[in-house]
Design goal:
This protein is an alpha+beta fold. It contains four helices and three strands, in the order ββααβαα. A hairpin with a 5-residue loop joins strand 1 and strand 2.
Amino acid sequence: MQMTGKKTSNIADIKEHTFDVVLNKPGGGPIGLTVEVRSDLSLPVQNVQKRITDKAVAKAKRNKTFTAEEREQNRYDMITAAIVSFKWGKNADGEEASFNGEQLPFTPENALKIYKALPFAVKQLDDAIGDETNFF
């Protein structure tokens, strides 16, 4: 049914956008790394989720489950699929931030280095990626 004479809003125009997560020290200010992310509803993240689900189903058929290490890696894989870019800047003290002297570009390998060194960053990214209000 077509609407006539009334102002309408086309819901097909609602599109996801990316969101910048400013990583903060627990109880402190920014560390100088902002991570641009997609939502967990985005296609790249959904593809990883499907792959993980397929693995879980295959394991269940053999009466097995994911190990703690596999669960952790699955979480990292989901977050990594959501990342678009790293944006380096100044930390709370006004100093240029780096990771062991380098402003690393985003790659899955570099993301893993940051996850391992800064577990609080994993939680902040996970929380932001799961919050739909950040993306629409």
